């Protein structure tokens, strides 16, 4: 199993300064430029530390959000392409349906792949509903745009015999020619998130790595769906490195400190619902049938926090132990964290990648760095040897 | 509301659509608001007392098909021009409400000898204000209760879809409204520059309490149409044809009558 360090690069100093949503509408006057700059450097330092400790690295993207300042993930990716030495650099990912200019995305990532000498890994994501209020892209037909952008980017990377033209339904280019080209030809390893067996299907058909985010034991059904379709499509057993799970993880050398850090990290979760109320599902974002069912049943009472191993939903205010049991937050002394991750991986049927939110919430730099070092020294070795392949396999 | 409408399936230039055709007299083509044809059911019935009312669900709304290449209001305008020609309608009164008013304005700028008079009710479609401010409220962002508060003169309780079929219609209506109106937000930047082409006598009706598309926006609309008259409907918000069905129908009849005579 490979471990990837991930942080949302939040502006947590602002979280308790407003009762308003933290996304789309918080006034930028709340941002202190000294604090912002310090935080950006701090998060980059932690990514660099993760590289030195032998972890891989994941970066994400949100907009107009105090929960995630990484609005242009190509920028931290570009910094890290030069500052890190060994880590794989996963951008998970770019909300493709929100991009007016997919060729620009292909060019940015190609440069990152070249500068890092082939360490780029790339994820196409649908993105959250509220992002559409910033990108201004239409929620209707967004998956149609998503797939056209996907096809264009892959063709742009794969093509080595000069320009081609693209006159699609949504995107138009008279000349597509990615100079400098991409190091990992025809394309870097590809990723896509999925939260159900249904959404995992297309990922399996493409042979991309499926990432399930913070959903607890819902991942079991999602992965089972993936493996089934993968085996049907490719006629062989699904390699473990196609299955990834994102959870929070923190450790310390004693229980009291670990508990303190777990609380600090878990504070991330309190930000999840803090978007303007109407923006989770703009019309067209979810399919007609799903929206119709929702109109009939009325709005959901609370957001799902993931499932416990027995398939029951987590209680609204779970304990730290319940969060560990659910596979949302792995925490404790190193041996406890090893046990929790191993147990979760076994329960969901095997895991090739652990996307580790090693920083989040109010977890400060000192505790983050100490936790990462301990994770590298006393947790990762228990899994690293079982890594399915030293070099990642490109998508089929 | 929907139950009272005798819907039938027809093809318009190979697009499957649902239609209501009611009453007799001069043809009146009604273009529904973003809530769908069902919002205007009582209005359609009232108009059918004096006109042959033609009302279709716009492609993508209600039970009408959505061709994969449709994504803008001019697709809808051409669809309705096809319909008018296919049905051989002459001397048409074209009435559009809110989103349907935008379609009506587009059709009117395209020009058709078959259309004699135009009625725009709280119509979307133009951009006249400053570029760093929205002219009309962002109905794709605001919560339903806020839209209701801004849109009705007398706020009314929301109704829940009673059946899955009804819920599907709502979901399709909302998705298609977004498809056509998400960005630029409920307008075509070029339309305002084309309004001078509307030569048919035009009545611009506006609910005095509309805060989604405010009264000044309506006046600006009317000012740019050469032969337009502007009238307020009292005690009505964004949907006067729903809230003040009788007064709205009478205003239309008064406007239309002299030409008919």
Can you put this structure into words, describing what you see?
Chain A: This is LLM class flavin-dependent oxidoreductase. Chain A: Pfam families: Bac_luciferase (PF00296). Chain A: GO terms for molecular function: monooxygenase activity; oxidoreductase activity, acting on paired donors, with incorporation or reduction of molecular oxygen. Chain A: Residues 40-346 form the Luciferase-like domain. The complex is a heterodimer of chains A (396) and B (261). Chain A has helices spanning 33-52, 74-83, 102-115, 132-135, 142-158, 197-206, 218-234, 255-266, 288-297, 320-326, 334-347, 365-379, 381-384; strands at residues 2-6, 56-59, 89-95, 120-125, 164-167, 172-176, 190-193, 209-213, 243-251, 329-332, 353-357. By secondary structure, chain A is α/β, with parallel strands linked by helices. Chain A has one domain: Luciferase-like domain (TIM Barrel, Alpha-Beta Barrel), CATH 3.20.20.30. Chain A has an 8-stranded parallel beta barrel, surrounded by 7 helices. In chain A, helix 1 packs parallel to helix 12 (365-379). The two termini of chain A are 20 Å apart. With 261 residues, chain B is an alpha/beta fold. Chain B has a single domain (2-260), classed as Alpha/Beta hydrolase fold, catalytic domain (Rossmann fold). Chain B has 8 helices and 8 strands. Chain B has helices at 41-47, 73-86, 99-110, 144-151, 164-181, 215-223, 240-243, 245-260, and strands at residues 8-12, 15-22, 26-31, 51-56, 92-97, 115-121, 202-207, 228-233. The two termini of chain B are 33 Å apart. Chain A binds chain B through residues 133, 136-141, 169, 276-279, 282-284, 288-289, 291-293, 295-296, 298, and chain B through 69, 71, 140-144, 160-161, 163-164, 167-168, 170-172, 174-179, 182-183.
């Amino acid at each position: 199993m490979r471990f990837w360090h991930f942080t949302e690069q939040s502006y947590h100093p602002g979280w308790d300064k407003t009762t308003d949503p933290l996304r789309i509408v918080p006034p930028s006057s709340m941002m202190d430029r000294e604090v912002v700059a310090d935080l950006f450097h701090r998060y980059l330092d932690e990514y660099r530390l993760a590289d030195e400790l032998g972890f891989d690295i994941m970066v994400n993207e949100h907009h107009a959000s105090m929960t995630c300042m990484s609005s242009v993930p190509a920028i931290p990716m570009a910094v890290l392409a030069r500052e890190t030495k060994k880590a794989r650099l996963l951008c998970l990912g770019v909300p493709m349906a929100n991009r007016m200019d997919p060729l620009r995305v292909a060019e940015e990532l190609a440069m990152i792949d070249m500068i890092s000498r082939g360490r780029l890994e790339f994820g196409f994501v649908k993105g959250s509903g509220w992002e559409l209020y910033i990108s201004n892209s239409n929620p209707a037909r967004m998956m149609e745009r998503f797939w056209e952008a996907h096809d264009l980017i892959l063709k742009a990377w794969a093509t080595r015999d000069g320009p081609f033209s693209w006159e699609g339904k949504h995107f138009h280019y008279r000349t597509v020619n990615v100079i400098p080209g991409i190091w990992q030809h025809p394309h870097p390893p590809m990723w896509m998130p999925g939260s159900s067996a249904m959404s995992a299907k297309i990922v399996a058909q493409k042979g991309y790595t499926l990432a399930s985010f913070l959903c607890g034991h819902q991942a079991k059904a999602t992965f089972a769906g993936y493996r089934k379709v993968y085996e049907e499509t490719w006629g062989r057993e699904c390699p473990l490195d196609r299955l990834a799970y994102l959870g929070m993880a923190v450790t310390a050398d004693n229980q009291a400190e670990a508990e303190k850090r777990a609380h600090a990290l878990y504070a991330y979760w309190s930000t999840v619902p803090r978007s303007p109320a109407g923006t989770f599902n703009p019309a067209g974002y979810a399919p007609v049938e799903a929206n119709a069912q929702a109109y009939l049943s009325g709005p959901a009472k609370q957001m799902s926090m993931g499932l416990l191993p027995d398939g029951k939903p987590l209680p609204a205010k779970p304990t730290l132990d319940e969060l560990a049991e659910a596979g949302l937050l792995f925490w404790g002394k190193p041996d406890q964290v090893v046990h929790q991750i191993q147990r979760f991986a076994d329960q969901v049927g095997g895991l090739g990648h652990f996307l580790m939110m090693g920083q989040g919430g109010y977890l400060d730099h000192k505790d983050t760095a100490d936790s990462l070092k301990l994770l590298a020294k006393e947790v990762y070795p228990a899994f690293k040897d079982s890594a399915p392949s030293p070099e990642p396999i490109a998508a089929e | 509301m929907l139950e009272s409408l005798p819907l039938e399936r027809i093809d318009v230039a190979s697009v499957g659509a649902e239609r209501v055709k009611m009453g007799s007299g001069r043809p009146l083509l009604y273009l529904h608001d973003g809530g769908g044809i069902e919002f205007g059911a009582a209005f359609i019935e009232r108009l059918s007392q004096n006109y042959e009312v033609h009302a279709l669900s716009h492609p993508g709304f209600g039970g009408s098909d959505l061709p994969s290449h449709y994504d803008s209001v001019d697709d809808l305008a051409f669809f309705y021009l096809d319909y008018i020609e296919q049905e051989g309608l002459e001397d048409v009164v074209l009435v559009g409400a809110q989103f349907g008013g935008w379609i009506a304005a587009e059709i009117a700028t395209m020009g058709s000898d078959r259309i004699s008079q135009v009625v725009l009710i709280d119509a979307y479609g133009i951009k006249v204000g400053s570029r760093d401010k929205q002219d009309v409220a962002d109905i794709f962002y605001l919560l339903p209760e806020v839209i209701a508060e801004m849109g009705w003169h007398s706020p009314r309780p929301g109704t829940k879809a009673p059946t899955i079929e009804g819920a599907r219609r709502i979901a399709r209506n909302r998705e298609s409204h977004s498809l056509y109106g998400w960005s630029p937000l409920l307008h075509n930047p070029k339309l305002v520059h084309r309004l001078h082409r509307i030569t048919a006598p035009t009545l611009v009706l506006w609910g005095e309490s509309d805060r989604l598309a405010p009264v000044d926006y309506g006046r600006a609309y009317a000012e740019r149409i050469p032969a337009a008259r502007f009238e307020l409907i009292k005690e009505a918000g964004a949907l006067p044809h729903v809230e003040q069905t009788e007064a709205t129908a009478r205003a239309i009849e008064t406007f239309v009558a002299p030409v008919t005579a």
